[in-house]
């Protein structure tokens, strides 16, 4: 480890230096998500592609790619959006090679978490995927004999010699911080290489590193690029219903972990509503929950506040800091987090936080956030009344959770830290693990239940079942018998699927033959939910509760196109939408959205059909 890094203004020259130091066998630790040094990775990839004597293994997760459209209508939406948000983000060339089937034999990419849904039916990626808990990735990298880190970094203030004395791992200390600590202790031989990006915020905690932690630095302005900033997806009424219920399960003075996505955004909004508009929060919740259920809930504003410990720092945490919900400090910090990727809104909130508040957000390795090992006594004391909240694709009637894959073995995403936090919930005295999911999904106009009898792929086994929340209720499964668990799951299932699931459970001998569905369960319908919350939705439950990174027209289009996507492929449903849209006259708001899609004055049959479909689904 050198006292000061050697600085470069040319990526190819830096790759020369890497090869001189390490030879032709390279095992690269490339951070998850945003922390990748894209220009350096591409230069190294090209060098190995053109020289088959170089053995290059890329160990990484969550390779980011700009969104692509699957139809002309989608392209009208995504094209301008992508040009605005992603045009200058340098694409990772290894990803394109995998998709095209042209990855050379001397290059291997090993990912332990995939961009959700982004690599289905791509053989090379599916075959080389490694299933890992996030906390196990460090040890796996060591066994793979990682010898090189390529990390995007933020530079500190320059010293008298013009070079920074410190750098920040910023968005990604998740595994890199532990690797560098081992190197400092002389336990690991590793070449540490950084690429400076001045768009990265300088974050503290374990992310804040001395310059000597890096051997080589690429810092020329020609390699500057904007951060990857995906916009938010809209939160539907069912997401808000889930969120309102979850927000009432979080005790004041407790600890919070939430994840990315529409449900996570809605949960942050519901907690903020509970803090800032407590009467509105309580009144809306009373429409959803029985008086008996509310006796055990937490509905008052936060006095002591929450402490955040999370794998991913999402916009919701920053919004909760601003709202005075997250205000309980641990070791002078409001939040300890492992990594971040954010929409433009994330950076807007981070920028407007007072400097002393932002400094109380500590970026840490996932060995700290996702685990109780190491300083266990202090972690236990800090993580009091923890609520670890994660999402799932499906939950079986007996409580097994499916979050990352399909029945045929295809990987949708990865385990990530979900198991880690559920294990913590059982290891801590007063913690709970909360799994959230909508009760149903719609594909090609066909509605299916996300609560199933059994499913061939499992992420979290049923012996770790705890709490499950859908738009229809909360199922507390901990310490329950199988029959009690099945009854609780039926109580939060969509009414259209309850009887079929009940019969399957009875045939398997897991429910008494004389079991009957309580009448209250039959109220679990979208129509009933809409009757309870539509008025509140208009006033209190917006589609983009934390902002979006989109224009107002794009927010409307995201909702309309989302509905179209669930119906596409169902001829009858699409014809019904066409008929409804052709008969509908655009409101000024809808007309603005149509003009954003170049459909303000549609010409030709195809454009008229596009216009009609959108008019049938756009908010009025």
Please report the distance between the alpha carbons of the first and last residues: 61 Å
Q: Major sheet, described briefly? A: 9 strands, mixed
Strand content: 15-25%
Counted by DSSP, the helix tally is 24
Q: What is the count of β-strands?
A: 23
Could you describe the 3D structure shown?
With 620 residues, the chain is of the alpha/beta class. The protein has 24 helices and 23 strands. The strands form four sheets. Strands 1, 2, 3, 4, 5, 6, 7, 9 and 10 form a nine-stranded mixed beta sheet that branches. Strands 8-14-13-12-11-15-18-22-23 form a nine-stranded mixed beta sheet, with helices on both faces. Helix 9 (262-276) crosses helix 10 and helix 10 runs antiparallel to helix 20 (526-540). The chain is globular and about 75 Å long. The chain starts with 5 loop residues before the first strand and ends with a helix.
Write the layout of secondary structure elements.
Layout: E1 6-8, H1 11-22, E2 25-29, H2 38-50, E3 55-60, H3 72-85, H4 93-100, E4 107-111, H5 123-128, H6 137-143, E5 148-155, E6 166-168, H7 176-184, E7 191-196, E8 204-205, E9 208-210, E10 216-218, H8 237-247, E11 255-257, H9 262-276, H10 278-288, H11 291-294, E12 307-312, H12 315-322, E13 335-339, H13 344-352, H14 355-358, E14 361-363, H15 366-369, H16 376-382, E15 386-391, E16 394-396, E17 401-402, H17 418-427, E18 432-436, E19 440-443, E20 446-449, E21 451-452, E22 467-470, E23 473-476, H18 482-491, H19 495-507, H20 526-540, H21 552-567, H22 571-582, H23 588-596, H24 604-617
